[in-house]
Design brief:
By secondary structure, the chain is of the alpha/beta class. The chain is 34% helix and 15% strand. The chain contains 22 helices and 19 strands. α8 packs parallel to α18. The longest helix has 19 residues. The chain is globular, with a radius of gyration of 33 Å. The two termini are 58 Å apart.
């Protein structure tokens, strides 16, 4: 190596002043480098040893690839034709916009769908719809990707094998021709007037049938709390825009996975925080929760508390308010004595609530038991917040499709009846209980004991045990209808023909009940004509244009909620049982099962955009 460097030094006068080298070998110019420079590959690289040279090999492969490209560049077998006369209402490159709704469980949100030459491409909120007012949640934004999900079911299956539409219609007509069949209908909770009309037909035509609704997460506890207080299952509607002081007890009411009306709730709260003049005032928000949530991050005062401690905290709040107001609704809480009576946060809450009687609001989350919701109803009544006027911060409404069949106890009882042999057929509409039902409810055993007809987006856990699986159409592919959280009527408009010839819920149920297939549009139009009085084409077209029925929105009827005569004694027993029960301490572990902020109960788990979306709190 020293000789090479010496050789280089001796010849430096022959080099240009700005000469550069890629390596020391190039600088030395020794024999090894000269040999390397004249070889295309190094010694370690093996060349082709057969008579076929490298150039001839590449020439043959290049020709093969070119021929493969020519084979791929062929016209489709189906004949396609361009516009011979362009449609009057279509301008290439300029999208159309259609009003529709997105239903999350039984609450619909108004949306506007951007459509480019017959393909939906973007979704925004409908500014005319009370539930959205031009905004959307992550679930509406993810609708497009759900429609194009490659894992969606592609067709009808019979015992796991591919079948046809005609075979399913014939099998359904034959099976359900016997009206004495013992049929259990299990569906997701829906507010669709057309579906509810078919539900009534099913129960009237099959006298031995039963209908239950199953949702892993929902309002069941809130309905049961209202029933405990008022003797009937009522929906609690909180008017946050009318409240000066808000107390949320384990209620993430501004997040769509935790509350069905989250979008409207968030708008109402934030609207009260826009200070535009010196006369404007802001609301005050207290949050008590065990998990850091979007609503908690927005609070003026947040108290961290385990979910199991929210009930005694609520009872202590009621007791302190009773001492200050002597309200009869809060008399059952007079004897409450627990660690939260002197809590500093509770002291501040009591002071602010008393100063804002009639313009305050206390709310509890869906995950809290019915006793907490009943106690919250008593607190709101004592503060003068409940009523039916336009100034009431809390109103209670009769929801037409809520009859007790949506409770977990009702579902568990129905599945137990199937396992006892009381039903021979199960019809499941959309739901997947084999996956998301509690483990102590033997859904798998019930499916094995009956003839099962299942409508689903995918061949899921329930479909794999079903006799008949029918692929469900996406909400952007079907005609339907729904009502908002407060009851506004809307129509679901399809934007594209079903990609895989899917069926809507009403088409599936109509085939089951009436033994023949009818298009969804005809079913929806007939229901709106006969049930809702929309007879003229002009009125129907106005609803399609606006996205809801404006002339008569159809809000759920508000009622003057009155406490039952036995409410006081019942709550005293509940409080006594809670006091004698085993209470967890601050250091005990507690497992709380909640819906995911992005995937909810798992129904959106196959949506790649939602899967990759950051968690709203942990990022």
């Amino acid at each position: 190596m020293s000789q090479d460097l010496q050789h280089t030094t001796e010849s430096e006068e022959n080099l240009a002043p700005n000469t550069y080298w890629k390596s020391l070998g190039e600088l030395a110019r020794n024999k090894e480098y000269e040999e390397y420079e004249h070889r295309e590959f190094g010694k370690e690289a093996s060349e082709l040893g057969d008579p076929v040279t490298r150039k001839s090999f590449l020439r043959i492969m290049g020709a093969s690839i070119a021929m493969a490209g020519f084979a791929a560049c062929r016209r489709p077998v189906q004949k396609i034709l361009p516009y011979s006369r362009q449609p009057e209402d279509v301008t290439i490159g300029i999208p159309m916009h259609y009003a529709s709704v997105f239903s999350h469980q039984d609450a619909a949100t108004g949306i506007l769908i951007e459509n480019n030459e017959g393909r939906p491409s973007k979704i925004e909120g409908n500014p005319d719809h009370p539930a959205s007012r031009g905004k959307t949640t992550l679930y509406e934004q993810a609708m497009i990707l759900s429609m194009y999900d490659p894992d969606r079911s592609r067709g009808i299956r019979f015992n796991g094998e591919t079948s046809t539409k005609d075979d399913f219609i014939a099998a359904a007509a034959s099976h359900f021709a016997d009206r004495s069949r013992r049929v259990l209908f299990v569906s997701e909770l829906s507010s669709s007037p057309t579906l509810l009309r078919l539900k009534e037909q099913a129960l009237s035509q099959f006298p031995n049938a039963r209908w239950v609704n199953y949702e892993p997460f929902g309002e069941a506890n809130a309905f049961e709390g209202a029933e405990l207080a008022f003797g009937q299952r009522l929906r609690t509607v909180n008017h946050f825009d009318r409240a000066d002081v808000i107390v949320a007890l384990d209620d993430d009411f501004m997040s769509p996975q935790s509350h069905k009306n989250a979008l409207q709730n968030a708008r109402m709260v934030t609207d009260r925080r826009k200070v535009m003049t010196t006369e404007d005032t802001m609301n005050r928000l207290y949050v008590v929760e065990g998990t850091f949530t979007s609503t908690g991050s927005y609070a003026d005062s947040r108290k961290k508390l385990k979910a199991s401690h929210v009930a005694p905290f609520t009872f202590a709040l009621a007791a302190r308010l009773y001492n200050a107001t002597n309200a009869s609704e809060l008399r059952p809480f007079a004897g409450v004595n627990n660690e939260f009576l002197l809590d500093e946060t509770l002291e501040a809450m009591v002071e602010d609530l008393l100063a804002a009687q009639g313009s305050s609001l206390v709310t509890a989350g869906y995950g809290q038991p019915s006793k907490v919701h009943a106690a919250v109803a008593a607190i709101n009544a004592a503060l003068g917040n409940i009523g039916t006027s336009n100034s009431a911060t809390v109103t209670y409404h009769v929801v037409d499709h809520v009859d007790g069949s949506e409770s977990l106890a009702s579902f568990a009882d129905a599945i137990a009846a199937v396992n006892r042999g009381e039903y021979d057929t199960m019809v499941l509409v959309g739901t997947n209980p084999a996956f998301n039902a509690p483990s102590d409810i033997d859904v798998a055993g019930a499916l094995d004991k009956t003839t099962v007809f299942h409508l689903a987006d995918m061949v899921d856990e329930t479909s794999k045990q079903a006799t008949w699986h029918v692929n469900r159409a996406h909400s952007l592919e079907q005609w339907g209808d729904a009502r908002s959280f407060t009851g506004a009527y809307s129509v679901v408009q399809p934007q594209i023909l079903p990609l895989f010839d899917g069926w809507s819920e009403v088409e599936f149920l109509n085939t089951i009940v009436n033994g023949e297939y009818t298009q969804g549009y005809n079913l929806v139009r007939d229901a709106w004509r006969s049930e809702l009085g929309v007879g003229t084409d002009r009125a129907w077209n106005a609803i399609l244009h606006d996205g809801l029925r404006k002339e008569n929105p159809g809000a759920f009827r508000a009622v003057n909620a009155r406490f039952t005569s036995g409410f006081g004694r019942t709550m005293e027993q509940v409080i006594a049982a809670s006091a004698t029960g085993t209470a967890s301490t601050a250091t005990d572990m507690e497992l709380i099962i909640r819906p995911d902020a992005k995937l909810f109960d798992g129904r959106y788990a196959n949506n790649g955009w939602l899967m990759e979306l950051p968690d709203p709190m942990t990022k």
